[in-house]
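Slack export, channel: ligand-projects

TW: morning all. Re-posting the request from yesterday since it got buried. We need the structure predicted with the small molecule present, not the apo form. The ligand is ISJ; the SMILES is in the block with the sequence. No rush, but it would help planning for next week.
GE: picking it up
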Amino acid sequence: MFYYLCAVKLNQLEKIKVGIVNYLNAKPLVYGLKQSSVIHDIELIADYPANIARQLLEGTIDIGLVPVAVIPHLKEHYINTDWCIGCDGPVASVCLFSEVPVEQIETVLLDYQSRTSVALAKILLREHWKIQPRLVDTKTDFRTDIKGTTAGVVIGDRALEQRNKSAYVYDLGEAWKQMTGLPFVFAAWVSNKKLPDAFIAAFNQANEAGVNMIPSVVATTPYPVFDLHTYYTHFINYQLDQPKREALQLFLAKLTEHTKEPVVMEQK
Ligand SMILES: C=C(O[C@@H]1C=C(C(=O)O)C=C[C@H]1O)C(=O)O
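GE: finished. pasting the full token output, ligand included:
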């Protein structure tokens, strides 16, 4: 009877809600989840990073591939698994795009889809490029406004497209590496509650399997804009290893040091 009741209860348990970034860079990790039996225990919710962050803050998801810049705003947080969206040097898809050299930039438009990269850009403008342009938050697509002395921070697939359009492309992963000598973490699997160890272990394995299946992901994802195999293996760096954890701590320390203003979470 006891076992029966447990079984009934298990059947009724809600699936764990997992927020995923709807960019190409998340595809290998998501591919791994979809190939794994862990997929039966989860519900995937795909959106752009700022909205995944908002959902974790509001508690409508349990875990997400979340911009790390929102970690200080969570009442409770756990950084799960050995996998992330990171880089060690140039990342290709997080850049400051401009028509003029960086020292001539007067205004920077900040991508509404981002939380980490816009915070990183503020740090780099101040500490690395040492300029103080006017910073403007955006709400919708703004790429056609990148002209004259108005530059823009663009992330994700749209940044891969913008590389072919802007005269000057300043890679934020590369600039961070030049400034600190460290890799960088843009997003990690952050939960707002402690999730069962067995689930996290299976989730971790699924991520690893996905990264090991990059050739299959590339084969099933036609993308004429950028060589995806190069993107997944030379630019994006998925392992959340010790140097990346140190880089994450440094970034979070710089965030509290510099950007005292709260992260504004936009409504959809
Ligand atoms: C490298 C990237 O990392 C992304 C950048 C994020 C941000 O700026 O908040 C969040 C999630 C990541 O997927 C990218 O999207 O190009």
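GE: first-pass observations. The pocket of ISJ is lined by residues 21, 23, 25, 49, 67, 85, 91, 93-94, 114-117, 155-156, 159, 186-187 (CB under 6 Å). The CA atoms of residues 87 and 216 lie 21 Å apart.
TW: perfect, thank you
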